[in-house]
Amino acid sequence: MVKTKAEELALEQREISVAAFFEKNRHLLGFDNPLRALSTTVKELVDNSLDACEEMKVLPEVKVEVRQVNENRFVVSVQDNGPGIVKEQIPKVFAKLLYGSKFFRMQQGRGQQGIGVSASVLYGQLTTGKPSKIISKIGKGKPGHYYELRIDIHKNEPEIVKDEIVNFELDHGTKVEIELEGKYQKGKQSVDEYLKQTAIANPHLYLIYINPLKEKIDFPRVVNNLPKEPKAIKPHPYGVEIGVLLRMLKGTKAKNLLGFFEKEFSRVSRNIAKEICDKSKVDGNMKPQEVHHDQAEALVNSIKNTKISSPPLNCLSPIGEEALLKGLQKEIKADFYGAVTRRPSVYRGFPFQVEAACVYGGELNNNSEELVRVMRFANKVPLQYQQSACAITKSAISTAWKNYGISQSKGALPTGPLVIVVHIASVWVPFTSEAKEAIAHYPEIIKEIKLALQEVGRKVGGYIRKTVKAREQAERANLFEKYIPELSGALSNLSGEKKTKIEENLNKVLKKSMKDILAGVDKEIVEEVNNNNNEKPKKEEKQSKLR
Predict the structure, then answer these.
(1) pLDDT computed for residue 547 by the predictor
(2) Which of 34, 128, 178, 228 has the most C-beta neighbours closer than 10 Å?
(3) What pLDDT does residue 539 have?
(4) Beta-carbon neighbour count of residue 87 at 10 Å?
(5) Interhelix angle for 34-56 vs 116-128, to 10°?
(6) What confidence score (pLDDT) does residue 437 get?
(7) Where does residue 330 rank: exposed (0-12), middle (13-18), buried (19+ CB within 10 A)?
């Protein structure tokens, strides 16, 4: 019997594993070139280490070493003092894509999708054929477990090459080594720069870095307290969509619809649940599994028209103004530092919080004619690529920096000795791709970023105005100083007093005047900065109350 074309095609169709998909599309995860692949691998391993240490409530100590094997091959080694990983979980954590504990958790964290570290293992396996090496220990007196792992591409399952018990120098922690094809160079998008920015956003971290040139760089800890621990929360009703609501209704253990809304969502009391049901004309006592599509759509529309408090904010853990300033002061030598932490806000039912900082002058004066540098962070992780596609860059460009004494051409970033820093903390950062390098252009997020930049812009603007005033006063003094000899001679002729004596007195008067002027300028700078730090605009207060 001759098969039809459709039957022939059906024989060729088969399920695609996640690992097989990313084997062909590794660029989606940030492995599109050797330079970026090296940086991405370090990033994924360090992010995992920081999350693990913070979950254990221990100040992180991380050691990163990048060793060059030959011209285009490197070994990346990252060791931490975190809680370690239970033996049975090690193969799945490192050699199975989309395996993790954080995807369904409404809580701020660096990693959520269960892709990053296993994608690095996959990339190393594809480019070198070598298995990744992992040592992990969960406590003092416990054995250290050593694995060599590969990923079975067709099954998306771990393939164990070696499983041994070994000695591990730490009481608890994990060490990972991945050999991969890469390229090392210093500069803006390098491993070196990523680790420097990581130290800025995580001032509680003690980091040791040994680069391929065998240079050892220490990033000391400047904050001795762990960041505020974020708490997991339930989803907020304002972010729910019809399909998601139907899925939740089928999976809930609640006995009726009223109980479902109370149990599965945050900020929903029995009265609010009843209001939602009444507005949608759906019986609140019916079983959740019996709700059909039209009723679910009516419930979603009803939620949009019901006043519900914003979600709890204890799920967020911002860097904080003081810690952010300490991190910046440690890594960048400048004349002025200013930072702000905005009140939390919401997009699609997800809480988020924006922080911004500006660093001006000092060692940055050498680049006074270049475009300012923008440091972008999401959940304390540096974003090094896709800058032009990011909401942070768009917000920085659309901010009127000329109002703050900083040069700016239309449609471009400003120029001058300035670094702009923006950090977004959220339970679910809306990245534009799985590589997690750019933030999507949600209007609510762009608005908050701009408000934060305007607030910190006023601080740096106040400093610039005062320094300009001091410079103008100094220029006037220098001009007057040039005429002192001539003036002294004229006064000597009129008064009969010695010229040298008059000149000496005039110089004393000039120096005292300059000292008084500069002291006054310094006082004005301090006062303006303090005023800006304490500034709570009425409009912002009003918006906060509305939220």
Answers:
(1) 40
(2) 178
(3) 44
(4) 16
(5) 140
(6) 87
(7) middle
pLDDT attached to residue 11: 63
First and final CA of the chain: distance in angstroms?
69
Residue 424 in contact with residue 439, Cβ under 8 Å? yes
The pLDDT, as a whole number, for residue 143 is 94
In angstroms, rounded to a whole number, what is the distance separating the alpha carbons of residues 242 and 252? 15
Q: What is the predicted pLDDT for the residue at 433? A: 80
Q: Can you tell me the distance from the alpha carbon of 513 to that of 378, in angstroms, rounded to the nearest whole number?
A: 48
Provide the Cα torsion 294, 296, 301, 302; round to 10°: 110
Query: Model's pTM, two decimal places?
Result: 0.78
Q: Are 420 and 373 a contacting pair, CB within 8 Å?
A: yes
Cα distance between residue 332 and residue 359, in whole Å = 8
CB 422 within 8 A of CB 390: no
CA dist., res. 87 & res. 85, Å (int): 6
Place of tokens 């040069």: 407
pLDDT the model gives residue 101: 46
- The H or E element spanning position 242 is helix 242-251
Q: Which helix (H) or strand (E) holds 275?
A: helix 270-280
Which 3-state string (H, E, C) describes 372-434? CEEEEEECCEEECCCHHHCHHHHHHHHCCHHHHCCEECCCCCEECCEEEEEEEEECCCCECCC
Strand partners, 160: 149
Question: Token pair for residue 248?
Answer: 């939740």
Q: Residue 257: left (phi > 0), alpha (psi -120 to 50), or beta?
A: alpha
- Report helix, strand and coil shares of the chain as percent, to nearest 5: 45, 20, 35
The SS3 call for residue 278 is: helix
